[in-house]
Structure formats: C-alpha cells, structure tokens
Amino acid sequence: MKKKILIGIIVAVVAVGAVYAATHLPRTEAGIPELEEGFGIYGSEVKFDGVYPGYSGNASITIINGKDKDRVFSVSITEASTLTKGYEAFPKEYFYWVTITKPEVTITAGGMEEIPITLSMPEDTNYASKHAEFRIRVGDLTQTGLVQIALESKWYIITAS
Amino acid sequence: MKKFRRIALSLVTAVSLLAILVVPVAAANPTVSITVTAEVVSITNTQSTWGIGTVAASAVVYFSTDGTEDIDWSQIENTGTVAVDVEIQGTDLAGTPTWTLATSTDEDQYSLYAYNVTAVDYTTEVKSVGYNDICADLATSGTYDWSMKFTAPSSFGGTEDGTEKSGTVTLVASKYVA
After folding, report:
1. Which fold has domain A32-159?
2. Is the Cβ of A5 closer than 8 Å to some Cβ of chain B?
3. Total count of domains within chain B
4. Could you report the per-residue pLDDT of A99-123, keeping only the tens digit for each?
5. Which of A98, B43, B61, B157 is 20 to 30 Å from A35 at the Cα level?
6. Which domain holds residue B126?
7. B170 to chain A: nearest residue by CA?
C-alpha cells in the first residue's frame, strides 16, 4: 500500500515537472536555436490553407537576436520578389488583410521576440481558389553601413473554392 | 400511468420539433490549416562600409579596401538552419544633386553591379526597384564571396555641393525553394 502511494507521488511530481518545463523554460529549450551574431527569423514559411471570406486567424514568427548587441527591428509586409511555383503575387490592395501587431520591436542581445501576425479576409471579398504569396520582412534599424541585411519569411495563402 | 407517459413523450417530441424549427443551424465554416515551418533564416556579411572617395565622371571603383578589384572582399555566410537565396537591391545616392541608380551611367546617373561567379564578371545589376539574385541555394553554414563595381555618372549636370552622398545596398535572404 505504502509502495503504491510512493509511486503515485513520484508520478505526480514528474508530471508537474514536465508541464512546468514545457511552459516556463526559455524558448531555446523549445527548439529555437540561438545566434552568436546578427539576427534571424524562426518561421521560414507560413501557410494558411482554406481561407474563406470572413475568416480571421493568426500565426507567429519569432525574431532571434544575436548575442553581439541590442537591436531594433522593423517588421513589414512586402511583395514577393520571386514567386514560388504555383503561386501568384498576393495583390497589394489586399495587404490590409494582414495586421502586424509589433511593426517595430527592440530586442536585447541574445533575446527573442514572438511576432503575432493576423490574417483577416473580409466577408465581401471575391478571391476564391487562389494560391497567393507575399513576404514578411524583418529589417535591423540599427544598421548604419552601406551594406545592410534584411530577412524574409515566405507567406502563402490558399483560399477556399 | 401510460397516459402520463404518452403525454410526456408528445411534449418532448413537440419541444424537439419546435427547437429544430426555431434554432437556426449555423453553416459550418471550412477548416483552415496553418503551418509554420520551424526553420531559421539568417545570414551575416563581413563588410558593410565602403568609402568610395572623390570620383571623376565615369570613374570605376570596386567594393574593396582601396577601390581596386577584389572579387572576394566581402563574404556572406548562411547562419540559419535552411538553405537560402540572397537577393540584392540598391538605392539612389542622396545628396545635391541626387545620383540615380540605373542600368547604365548618364548625367547624374550611376550604376552598380555585383560580381557574378558564373559569368566571371560584374554582371548582376543592383537595382533600386526590384531585386536580383546574388547567390541562390546557399547551404547552411555555406559562404559566398562577393564584391561590387561602381561606375560614376558620365557627367555631372547639377551643381555639386561637395558634400558626401550616401545610399544603401540591402542583401535580402529568404528560404530557398526548389
């Protein structure tokens, strides 16, 4: 009887510990690699499949700042310079469907920031059966030299028929 | 007792039918699946500044320490977890007057080309509108050496104020998709 109680306590402690670890440990423990220098985007591609008029949903990318310095980042929507096979350019007049909650964010050296982005397709839109692509661009506003770096996450929208 | 059961059953049936008629049935929305690819896009570049110095009309200056040709002067490294394409874009040079970035030189119009390993020459045009690939499918931890060639305007139309002109060249990285 005592043995069963002891095993029960151990199981409970392990379970609570596992839940705590999953929810409280730094993001790097969740699989996002750190960077020694520069910056990166976690979320190289994002796909919304089955979007319909009236739909609203969100997805996130994470900006990873290198350990070399604090940085200020800009986050914006931009056209795809080259299109992935099977996709057309997401019309610029529909860019307002995309809301970036943090268009500018400061991240300390070695830090990360999740950027939630909402896609809302208006009710009265006629844009069915489309495969469209745009980009979410992240720039480093602290860059001062001639040659600067920007990174892009590829976003795909497939609308319902 | 049987009568009571019949009445109760009838009442339940009636209420159920009424509920079906009164409560509107919401049309089921299609399911939207959202997929975020768990990969990191990241690059670094070794050289970011370039002092071209004072130039004469049609002068050619290379992206290097002393302005002479050095095709390996700067290096891009893929520091992410996925292969990337790197594109390049430039800007006009702000000043009085502004020098416009163009395919070929002209009055107050300059050109900028990046070195192309395949062509073994400076053939990748750096444009202010649109992009050109500087390197494609750069593997994780892979590096790419590069440089640029600047050609000054063929003539200076405006009255130069003698102050420095400035602009930027942006390297844009995104996931390589075959």
Report:
1. Immunoglobulin-like (2.60.40)
2. no
3. 1
4. 999 999 999 999 999 999 999 999 9
5. A98
6. 43-175
7. A148
Segment A22-77, tens digit of pLDDT: 433 344 546 888 999 999 999 999 999 999 999 999 999 999 999 999 999 999 99
Q: Is residue B149 within 8 Å of residue B63, measured between CB atoms?
A: yes
Contact criterion met (CB below 8 Å) for A48 and A80: no
Task: Select from B71, B76, B79, B74 the least CA-distant residue to B49.
Answer: B74
Q: Which residues of A touch B130 (CB under 8 A)?
A: 81
A147 and B34 in contact by Cβ < 8 A? no
Per-residue pLDDT, B24: 45
B97 is a domain residue = yes
Residue B1 included in any domain: no
Question: Per the CB < 8 Å rule, is A50 touching B30?
Answer: yes
Q: What is the pLDDT of residue B66?
A: 84
Subunit contact B48:A146, Cβ cutoff 8 A: yes
Q: Which of A147, A153, A155, A158 has the highest number of chain B CBs within 10 A, making it the mutation to test binding with B? A: A147
SS3 B12: helix
Calculate the CA dihedral of residues A2, A3, A4, A5 and round it to 10 degrees. 50
Instruction: For residue B119, tell me if it sits in a domain.
Output: yes
* ipTM (interface pTM): 0.81
Name the residue with tokens 């790419």.
B144
To the nearest whole angstrom, how far is the Cα of A17 from the nearest Cα of chain B? Answer: 25
